[in-house]
Amino acid sequence: MQTQFYSLPFILVVCSLFTSAFAEHHEASAGIEAAVANAERPDEDTARDSQRKPAEVLEFFGIEEGQQVLDMYAGGGYYTEILSYAVGDSGRIVAHNNNVYAGMTGEQRTTRYSDGRLANVEELIAANNALELPDDSFDAVIFVLSYHDVYYLDGNRGWEKVDREAMLAEVFAATRSGGVVGVVEHIAAADTDPEVIAGLHRLDPELIKQDFVAAGFELNAESNILQNADDDLGIIPMLPQNRGRSSRAVLRFVKP
Fold first, then answer.
1. Which of 23, 174, 181, 189 is deepest in the core (most CB within 10 A)?
2. What backbone torsions phi and psi does residue 82 show, to the nearest 5 degrees?
3. Is this structure's pTM higher than 0.90?
4. Domain 8-254 belongs to what topology?
């Protein structure tokens, strides 16, 4: 039997590719740790940190001081506030909500942004397909527990059908070359019907990858830091018995 030997550079390349494809643990930088530990954060936010692991997630997404970041469907602003501290005075955060999200989180948002409390944060209230984002303006874009809603449709609540292809094309254009799109999403079972997904508020990670790759992004890495093997993938994550316990995909895409 012939034994085949590989050079050290070849081995290093293979190891590097494996690491980039699936990463399990991420030590947060001092800047991100300080942002999460900021004493100005509301108690109701910090109470959620243990199950959301924001320091590890933002480190995985490569958030740094001075960056321009778009927080898509930011909701009440849990991540927006941490991002604000992480990018510092030289950075800028755009916190996007559509009218439905804004209506659900009005008081929380008002309190968070009142009196210039987060001076480097700009609120953007815009419909799903009317973002009007400037080209090449963001170093990072994040979708945290929100991308499933682009599959959602409820005319009674004012949530109209989203043209996913058009929305992601705009996000792609607004992201700088080399910029990152980070997605955290409740996991649905593989090959779950998209019509069922809408009601579950979950997504098959493979569907997310398909959408963002089709938009021109490259899948750079994925992490299991928020996965929970005990999660019932057929239960709506927002139900009391599952809130904060859902198994979540954490994906990092890069614009070439």
1. 181
2. -60, -45
3. no
4. Rossmann fold (3.40.50)
